[in-house]
Design goal:
With 79 residues, the chain is α+β, with helices and mostly antiparallel strands. 16% of the residues lie in helices and 32% in strands. The chain has helices spanning 45-48, 70-78, and strands spanning 5-12, 15-20, 25-29, 52-54, 59-61. Strands 1-2-3 form a three-stranded antiparallel sheet, with helices on one face. Strands 4-5 form a two-stranded antiparallel sheet. The radius of gyration is 12 Å and the shape is globular. The protein starts with a strand and ends with a helix.
Length: 79
C-alpha cells in the first residue's frame, strides 16, 4: 500500500515536515537529494520554498515538475 501524505509544512532551507494518513510524521531534509536535471534548480531556496502537496499525485511537487515518491518520503520520516 502506498503511504498517503496528509499534511506538509515548509520549515527552512531544504527541510519540510510531513504527516501521513497513518499518523506517521516528521521532518525530512532533502538537501542531499537535490541533484540531477530536475532537482538542481531547487537548490535555490526561493524555488525550494515553493513546495506544495499535490493530493492528486499523492506527493510533494514544485512548479518545475520535480517530485519525490511518497514511499521515499515515508521511509525518510520513519528513519
Amino acid at each position: 500500500m502506498v503511504p498517503r501524505i496528509a499534511e506538509l509544512k515548509y520549515l527552512s532551507a531544504y527541510r519540510i515536515w510531513l504527516k501521513f494518513e497513518d499518523g506517521s510524521q516528521g521532518e525530512v531534509d532533502l538537501e542531499a537529494e537535490l541533484w540531477g536535471e530536475v532537482f538542481e534548480p531547487l537548490k535555490e531556496k526561493r524555488l525550494f520554498k515553493g513546495v506544495r502537496l499535490d493530493t492528486e499525485l499523492n506527493t510533494i511537487t514544485w512548479d518545475n515538475g520535480a517530485d519525490f515518491s511518497p514511499e521515499f518520503l515515508y521511509e525518510m520520516v520513519k528513519s
